[in-house]
Write a structure and sequence with these properties.
Elements (H helix, E strand, L loop, with lengths): L5 E7 L32 E6 L7 H4 L2 E3 L19 E6 L2 E5 L4 E5 L6 E5 L30 E8 L5 E5 L5 H8 L17 E6 L6 E6 L26 E7 L6 H19 L6 E7 L7 H12 L7 E4 L8 H13 L1
Parallel strand pairs: 1-3, 2-4, 9-11, 9-12, 12-13, 13-14
Antiparallel strand pairs: 1-8, 2-7, 5-6, 5-8, 10-11
Length: 337
């Protein structure tokens, strides 16, 4: 299923039913008087958050949402049936914006949060309501009022624990596929990941879990739209920890690694500097390409002298499953201790 984090939809709540003009007719009651009932209320439209949904894909299959109209009033003072309410489910982290008013209506930050987005129209009054001492046969009723209609924008901000970033082809997709239930596409070419990939990692010894998000690779000038841009980085807003992947195969080029780390952090800073305030671990991937680990560690320690803000680093191989168990164990400890 494709991932979508934006959608524009049209909503319209139900119209209220019209009031009825009717007069009671029965044997032996020639002048029974007015008995027209009121119209039913139009259906409301609600949004409700659901933590089992993590994409706005459904809104690209359907972008018009209209609730049921109320039924018209009937004779014998019978009120028309109310229109059915319409409930629309969205992921946690969805922001709803009124396009015309350019106003944020709500941000869903918890499960089962409900919001009335469009009130159904009121039912009209039947002629029974207009009977008086001076007008015993009123030929008057009111029509049901129209429901609300709006054009709204949905924006999704995923609530994930761990965010993964790095240059294209640094092994991020292989890593997230290895540790989680995510089904990612793997390939030795630029921009293997072209949409965010969300996975879940569970601890088999307890009920703990964490969610992890892989976003498209970042390159120089991504902040101004080069490559696939940085729009997906907005999903790191609520994450606890960032894993910054580095391709260790370029270890023979000291400056290239330093520039790679600096480039990504510079691009993120231009997009949203608050994201850089989050804890960041450097993940040096593809260590299966090297034999002497002691020399490799010394080399990396020299590189880390340029990045005082980095608290931890890890040497792993996503392909050969080296160091991944230790990394995941430390992530669980970081999140739950």
């Amino acid at each position: 299923m494709k991932f979508f984090d934006k959608a524009i939809i049209y909503i319209k709540s139900g119209k209220g039913g019209d009031g009825c003009i009717s007069f009671h007719r029965a044997k032996y009651i020639p002048k029974g008087g007015p008995d027209g009932g009121n119209g039913g209320k139009g259906g409301n439209i609600y949004f409700i958050s659901n933590n089992n949904i993590n994409t706005l894909t459904n809104f690209f299959c359907q972008n018009n949402y209209i609730s049921e109209n109320g039924s018209h009033g009937k004779n014998c003072q019978r009120t028309g049936k109310n229109g059915k309410n319409l409930i629309i489910q969205v992921p946690i982290g969805t922001k709803i914006i009124d396009i015309e008013k350019k106003k944020t209506l709500i941000f869903f930050d918890r499960n089962n949060q409900i919001f009335l987005i469009a009130q159904g129209g009121k039912g009209g009054l039947g002629n029974i309501n207009f009977k008086s001492s001076i007008n015993r046969t009123p030929y008057k009723r009111t029509k049901g009022s129209l429901g609300e209609k709006k054009r709204i924008k949905l924006e999704l901000y995923l609530k994930v624990n761990i965010g993964i970033l790095g240059f294209p082809n640094t092994g991020k997709s292989t890593f997230i596929k290895k540790i989680s239930s995510a089904n990612t596409k793997i390939g030795d070419y630029f921009f293997t990941t072209i949409k965010p990939v969300l996975g879940t990692v569970k601890n088999k010894f307890n009920n703990n879990f964490f969610s992890i998000l892989d976003v498209p690779g970042i390159i120089k000038k991504s902040s101004i739209g080069k490559g696939l841009g940085l729009n997906f980085i907005k999903h790191f807003k609520y994450c606890n920890l960032i894993l910054h992947f580095i391709d260790i195969s370029i270890i023979n080029n000291h400056d290239k690694i330093i520039n790679a780390i600096n480039t990504i952090n510079f691009e993120i800073k231009k997009f949203n500097k608050k994201i850089l305030l989050k804890d960041q671990w450097l993940i040096f991937n593809k260590i299966d390409l090297f034999d002497n680990m002691n020399d490799l560690k010394l080399y990396i320690n020299n590189i880390l002298l340029n990045f005082k803000f980095i608290k931890k680093y890890y040497l792993i191989s996503s392909k050969e499953d080296i160091g991944i168990k230790k990394l995941c164990t430390d992530i669980f400890q970081y999140l739950y201790n």
